[in-house]
Backbone:
């Protein structure tokens, strides 16, 4: 028989309350998204499933004018995916290359370039948001995916992470590779990249979530509805809601919320151990 | 630096070039622009501008609105940091102790990491919506004359609650990994020496978590300063009367809605200095951790 002490019971109690605190808002949002506007308006938030799941999500995902004038949630989903994946891959590519140069080469400008990269850690995009906007506007990149992603990958968190990892790679590897006649590019692509596979995967996962969840930058630099991401769509539908109208379409706001939440949550849940590893290691 | 390296050649410049080019165009140049613009005053039509030294700083930083925003940012950052750290530490300690259901608890406590701040903001906002929000009814039924649209304390309450909710999972993950790093032998020795769970927490676990906690304090302050933008923008929008506007939110509203480029830039520069100070503190701490 299990011997349950008071201490163990109170521990479970605290954890259950904590788990409810962390999941209840999303549960309520999900359940409310399966009800009709009338039900929500009359009876408030819903804790159990209703019968309008397919109707609501279909309308939000595929019907023009369902959430906004023209753009549908499936288009926003696509934009969000592009941003998340583009950001993650872009960041991994430039930071593995830069970290490789810093760790494995001696060159004259190494020190100043390292400090330039280091400086980016100090200033988040938020504090230089307006000049960044002007730069991107000046290059004619407003409302493009390039203009959306490039300024976001300027910060060097990934570079430091890979620099740390490369430093821990045994030096014998390079010696052996050079004896075998490998050049700099071959060593990088045939040896370094394969042995950092799990690191790369962990960083990709973290960066996908970070990219997907970007808000302020996409908000100011996308003006064309066609380029909205789901997270930006959230802001727009909120404005529609607060403007009023006939019957507030809360169920659509909730459906959009769930759609914006689902992909990053799935990625985190499916790759949980990699994700935890990537997060804990990259922030150090 | 590796002892074994490739010799002099243009190759390293090719490898580092993509990052440096992106940094120069999208980081150094805008940052320099922000500093430059903070010394300029534009006329009403944006046609000409003139160099005015620190006038923008004097006109924006020394105003009641900025000081109010700075005050709110401080209180807000303190509350968010303290509450989310305390809650996450409690949950992490308990999750590290239990045997049954540990995996489920951990998953349920960490998955909210993936939710974007503005999405959390919208969910919270609807919960407090006077039309359908259950929490709005609940608080009013409890006798709290709750109205976050009009009352600045209530608005602050909403923003802090959502910001804490969003941050608990990150702190939880770090605390848990910190707890798992405590050697079994230390825990066993402490269990033999000290029967009281509470005392064992304060004399063993808490000090051993101190490096993690210090590190998380910096992370949380940065979060409260910058990443809560999405939460504020989707809940109160700084209302009522700018009482829930953080400094970053004010940079945004002054610059984009108010079109006050010089003033907004001056605020940006002040924020940069604040972050710089925070980073210096962080690195002094990291140096200490290396010796530790």
Residues:
């Amino acid at each position: 028989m299990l011997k349950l002490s008071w201490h163990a019971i109170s521990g479970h109690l605290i954890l259950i309350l904590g788990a409810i605190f962390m999941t209840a808002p999303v549960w309520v949002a999900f359940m409310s998204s399966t009800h009709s506007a009338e039900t929500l308006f009359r009876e408030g938030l819903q804790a159990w499933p209703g019968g309008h799941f397919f109707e609501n999500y279909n309308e939000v995902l595929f019907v023009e004018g369902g959430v906004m004038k023209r753009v549908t949630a499936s288009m926003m989903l696509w934009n969000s995916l592009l941003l998340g994946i583009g950001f993650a891959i872009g960041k991994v590519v430039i930071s593995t290359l830069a970290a490789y140069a810093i760790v494995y080469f001696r060159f004259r400008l190494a020190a100043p370039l390292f400090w330039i990269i280091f400086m980016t850690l100090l200033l988040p995009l938020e504090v230089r948001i307006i000049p960044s906007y002007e730069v991107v506007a000046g290059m004619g990149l407003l409302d493009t995916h390039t203009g959306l992603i490039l300024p976001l990958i300027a910060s060097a968190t990934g570079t430091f992470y890979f620099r740390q990892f490369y430093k821990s790679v045994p030096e014998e590897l390079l010696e052996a590779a050079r004896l075998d006649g490998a050049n700099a590019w071959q060593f990088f692509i045939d040896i370094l990249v394969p042995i950092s596979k799990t690191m790369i995967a962990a960083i990709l996962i973290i960066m996908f979530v970070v990219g997907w969840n970007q808000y302020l930058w996409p908000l100011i630099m996308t003006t064309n509805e066609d380029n909205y991401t789901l997270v930006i769509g959230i802001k727009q539908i909120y404005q529609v809601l607060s403007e009023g109208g006939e019957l507030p379409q809360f169920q659509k706001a909730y459906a959009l919320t769930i759609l914006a939440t689902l992909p990053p949550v799935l990625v985190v849940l499916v790759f949980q151990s990699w994700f935890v590893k990537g997060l804990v290691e990259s922030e150090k | 630096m590796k002892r074994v390296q490739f010799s002099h050649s243009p190759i390293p410049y090719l490898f580092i070039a993509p990052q440096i080019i992106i940094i120069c165009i999208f980081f150094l140049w805008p940052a320099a622009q922000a500093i430059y613009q903070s010394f300029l005053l534009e006329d009403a039509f944006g046609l000409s501008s003139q160099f005015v030294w620190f006038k923008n700083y004097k006109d924006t930083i020394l105003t009641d609105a900025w000081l109010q925003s700075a005050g709110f940012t401080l209180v807000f950052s303190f509350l968010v940091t303290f509450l989310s750290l305390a809650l996450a530490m409690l949950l992490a300690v308990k999750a590290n102790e239990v045997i049954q259901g540990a995996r489920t608890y951990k998953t349920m406590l960490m998955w909210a990491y993936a939710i974007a701040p503005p999405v959390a903001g919208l969910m919270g906002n609807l919960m407090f919506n006077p039309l359908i929000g259950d929490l709005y009814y609940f608080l009013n039924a409890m006798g709290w004359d709750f109205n976050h649209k009009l009352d600045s304390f209530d608005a602050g309450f909403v923003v802090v609650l959502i910001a804490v909710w969003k941050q608990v999972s990150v702190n939880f993950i770090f605390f848990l990994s910190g707890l798992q790093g405590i050697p079994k032998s230390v825990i066993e020795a402490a269990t033999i020496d000290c029967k009281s769970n509470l005392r064992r927490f304060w004399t063993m676990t808490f000090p051993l978590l101190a490096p993690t906690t210090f590190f998380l304090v910096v992370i949380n302050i940065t979060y409260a300063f910058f990443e809560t933008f999405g939460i504020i923008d989707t809940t109160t929008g700084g209302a009522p009367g700018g009482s829930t506007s953080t400094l970053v939110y004010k940079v945004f509203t002054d610059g984009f809605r108010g079109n006050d480029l010089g003033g907004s830039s001056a605020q940006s520069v002040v924020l940069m200095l604040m972050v710089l100070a925070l980073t210096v503190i962080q690195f002094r701490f990291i140096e200490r951790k290396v010796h530790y």
In short: The longest helix of chain B spans residues 64-97.
